[in-house]
Amino acid sequence: MTPWPAVAAVAALSFALKAAGPLALGERELPPRARAVIALMAPALLAGLVTAEIAGDRWRTVDPALLAALTAVPLLRRCRLPMPAVLIGATLLAATVRRLTT
Length: 102
What we know:
Elements: H1 4-25, H2 32-55, H3 64-78, H4 83-101
C-alpha cells in the first residue's frame, strides 16, 4: 500500500481547515489579540518539534552543545543582532560547549 492516499487526505483536510476560517469570518477582521496569538502558534509548534527531536526518546540523547546553541539564538535575536551574527554566535557557543564536555 502506498502512502499517497493518506497524503492526499491530509492535504484535503488541511485545505478545508484553512478555508473554514475565512468562510466563517466573512468580511470581518480578527481582533488584534487573536491575530497576535495566531501569529505565535507556528513558532511555538516549531519550537516544540525541534525540542522533541533534539531531546530524543525520553530525553536520553540530549546534546548539550546543540541545546545551548538553540537557547542562544532567541537571546541573541532579542539583543537585535543581525541573523549572520546570531548564527556565528550560536555556532561558537556550540563549539565551546562541545569542547568543554568532551
